[in-house]
Specification:
single chain, about 750 residues, alpha+beta, Ubiquitin-like (UB roll), 16-stranded antiparallel sheet, 13 helices, globular
């Protein structure tokens, strides 16, 4: 730092003793105001100023941490302080280590954009990066700092990282294991022994994680306690590292102790608010059985929910264990401190810029002046999620006093509608124009409206649909749709039109019923029959028919979100009866099931397992048109095959034509694993396996399977799913589709 220029020293040395400073100026000062800078001086205008006073003032400014250089000039009675401020950090990058992980900027680097450049903070960030890599099991890592001064005077900081080498666990020993199988520890620990082809999904890579190493003994001990070993001791692991080959051997010393049997389960209520018999009905721990710490914790949560549902919002459940080491028994005691009953004073809604307040309030099971219930609170949160209107929703409990609270509902709205405009030109159909407007929450009213139209020289189609899940905010719903199409092909024309109308009722929080009527009419004309036209094509393709049917359905849904559920399941059953007028006469049964399970509480990140199944079958009551039969393949059944391409076929005719005629029975199911990919972009990766069957006389006349992966993305225009599938067991003649996508569908 230049404290005083040489020129200043010479001038000041000859004039200081009798010089009076009447003017004080500041140059290059931005981080603090001139008024503040004046107050920091130990002299004022009109005072005699000597060298030591100036020196103290400059040091005081410098210690503020905003400047790289400060110097002063004296010209007659005018004193000027000149400041060179530190540059502002405008850009921060990290290369070579977790480049796409935005969290590392906050958790590890800890330098904010817009802050002043500080060498000490840069060095501290460098040390934290090295420590983070060490916790990941990397050694010999290197971090270099690259500084680039930009045209606007700010600075760009880049951390150039060489992660070093990973330490691979070659051997993992557990000494003292007798009552359990040490192979089962792999399900709970993070540091696992390397397996052959460890890079493959589902295999152990063997990478050492120092951050998890200190917790693995606790995980093993917790696993022992799930089988009654309350005295189990798991010492810290001994790690022997071979730095020449970057491998490690890890050994554990374990003392299992004896297995404890539950001698009794008791409850201590500081104020009796519930009969003990009701508590015993909800818990699973029983006398005479081995103690299980996992069940013990779950029972404590169940008791808390049971009491909180009685309006004791601030109930405490303190579990305790009394061990008898001689008999190896344990008494389980739950101490219950209920507190006072709590009433809801007000429900405050925020964040809904478009959705009307009443649309949100009608999904809440708690309102002003209601008594508190923990189950009602959870069900309200899940009901908001099932709407599909919000990408985020929380219900906060704001305590007013020991008897009163407010509920603060905070939502962040998601896109629910889209407008599609398209056009094109084809040699057959000529100019094509398409338009579509769809919104599941139009004008924030909760009403679902869709309008679609397409027109060309040969094809015309239009459809309109409207549904209201809560007519006049009641438990009744209503829907209506109408569609029309007129298509001209080389050998025939077909005109189709129809409508549907229905009403539903919400019987309970999770059960909805529906009763509807649908009519459709399909007419073929201008059929070109010539000598080259297949008999089967003539007989089975151009069958005009009308359908008049009644549909009854019942659905259970307790999931927590519409597009991306992490808990709960759905089960629906519908029966369609065709034959009340019209040509078609049949019964159609559809059963759909889906189960969702989030794994974050178990493995530490937001993975989701899904299982979906469909069972459909027809009963002939006179006439089943081919168009009403079932066809398999595509996004909603077995991926990897073209939509509706899998079905029973007629034998090839003399021209080799095989006609798909649909099946009367079909079953398909999917097992999926959804993993976070880029959280900031709301993008996830999908892995799946599909299997399905279809037939007429039996479900398994035709069976197909597939596996693959894909991307799930909550884009600005709604949810999009991209799928890449690999068929398994495909046959000659199958129509394959290795890539598919969908928009606006539930994942």
């Amino acid at each position: 730092m230049r404290i005083i220029l040489v020129s200043f020293i010479l001038v000041f040395a000859t004039n200081l003793m009798s010089n009076v400073i009447n003017t004080i100026n500041f140059n290059g000062l931005h981080q603090i105001s001139p008024n503040v800078a004046l107050r920091m001086l130990n002299f004022e205008k009109g005072d005699d100023v000597d060298e030591s006073m100036l020196d103290k003032a400059i040091k005081k400014y410098y210690n503020q941490g905003y400047f790289t250089d400060i110097y002063a000039d004296v010209n007659n009675d005018a004193l000027t302080f000149n400041f060179v401020e530190k540059p502002v950090v405008s850009q921060i990058e990290i290369k070579g280590y977790k480049e796409n992980d935005d969290k590392i900027l906050d958790s590890v680097i800890q330098i904010k954009k817009g802050s002043l450049y500080n060498e000490k903070k840069i060095e501290s960030a460098k040390k934290r990066i090295l420590e983070a890599m060490s916790q990941d099991g990397k050694i010999d890592g290197v971090v270099e700092i690259q500084k680039e001064y930009l045209d606007n005077g700010s600075i760009k900081i880049t951390f150039l990282v060489n992660e070093g080498e990973e330490i691979i666990i070659e051997k993992l020993d557990f000494d003292g294991v007798k009552g359990l199988d040490s192979d089962d520890f792999d399900d709970v620990i993070s540091n696992k022994q390397h397996q052959f082809m460890g890079w493959f999904w589902g295999r152990n890579s063997g990478e050492l994680s120092l951050g998890d190493l200190e917790y693995d003994p606790l995980r093993i001990k917790d696993y022992y306690m799930q089988f009654g070993y309350l005295d189990a001791k798991v010492n810290k692991p001994f790690v022997k590292v071979n730095f020449n080959h970057y491998t490690a051997d890890i050994s554990y010393q374990i003392i299992e102790g004896e297995k404890y049997i539950i001698s009794g389960v008791s409850f201590e209520q500081t104020k009796k608010v519930i009969d003990e018999a009701k508590i015993k009905d909800v818990i699973k721990l029983k006398s005479g059985e081995p103690f299980n710490i996992k069940t013990f914790r779950l029972d404590a949560k169940k008791i808390k929910t049971l009491i909180a549902d009685l309006s004791y919002a601030y109930v405490q459940v303190i579990p305790d264990l009394k061990k008898d080491k001689k008999k190896h028994t344990v008494e389980v005691i739950f101490k219950i401190i209920p507190g006072e009953k709590v009433r809801i004073r007000n429900v405050i809604i925020s964040g809904n810029n478009r959705t009307l307040d009443r649309i949100i309030r009608r999904e809440l099971f708690l309102g002003p002046n209601d008594m508190y219930s923990l189950t009602d609170l959870k069900d309200s949160r899940n009901a908001l999620g099932r709407l599909g209107f919000f990408e985020a929703k929380t219900i906060e409990e704001k305590r007013i006093n020991q008897n009163t609270m407010d509920l603060v509902v905070k939502v962040k709205e998601a896109p629910t509608g889209n407008v599609q405009l398209g056009g094109g030109y084809g040699s057959y159909g000529g100019i094509l124009l398409t338009v579509g407007v769809n919104d599941r929450n139009i004008w924030g009213s909760g009403i679902n409206i869709g309008v679609d139209a397409e027109i060309s020289q040969t094809n015309k189609s239009a459809s309109f649909s409207i549904s209201n899940p809560r007519l006049n905010d009641s438990d009744f719903s209503g829907n209506f749709s109408i569609n029309f199409s007129d298509n001209e092909y080389n050998d025939y024309s077909v005109e189709s039109n129809g409508f549907s109308i229905g009403t539903g009722h919400k019987f309970t929080r999770h059960i909805n019923g529906y009763l509807g009527y649908t009519f459709s009419d399909n007419k073929y004309s201008d059929v070109n029959y010539d000598e080259n036209t297949s008999y089967y094509l003539n007989t089975y393709s151009f069958e005009s028919y009308s359908k008049s049917s009644v549909i009854v359905s019942l659905k259970y849904d307790d999931t927590d979100d519409y597009y991306l559920p992490r808990e709960g399941f759905t089960l629906s059953q519908s029966i369609e009866r065709a034959g009340e007028g019209g040509d078609a006469k049949f019964y159609k049964f559809r059963t759909d099931f889906a189960k969702y399970k989030g794994l974050e509480d178990y493995i530490g990140f937001d993975a989701i397992v899904r299982y979906k199944a469909r069972l459909y079958y027809l009963v002939n009551d006179g006439y089943i048109p081919i168009a009403e039969k079932f066809y398999m393949g595509g996004m909603r059944s077995v991926r990897g095959y073209e939509s509706y391409s899998l079905s029973p076929k007629l034998a090839p005719d003399k021209y080799g034509y095989e006609r798909r005629i649909g099946g009367e029975k079909t079953f398909s199911n999917n097992l999926e694993l959804s993993l976070p990919l880029i959280e900031k972009a709301k993008m996830r990766v999908l892995l799946f396996a599909d299997w399905g069957a279809i037939g007429d006389s039996s479900f398994t006349e035709i069976t197909r399977a597939s596996y693959g992966g894909g991307i799930e993305w909550f884009s600005p225009v709604g949810p999009i799913q991209l799928v890449f599938a690999k068929p398994v067991g495909d046959k000659e003649g199958d129509k394959l589709s290795t890539f598919e996508f969908s928009m606006g569908q539930r994942f």
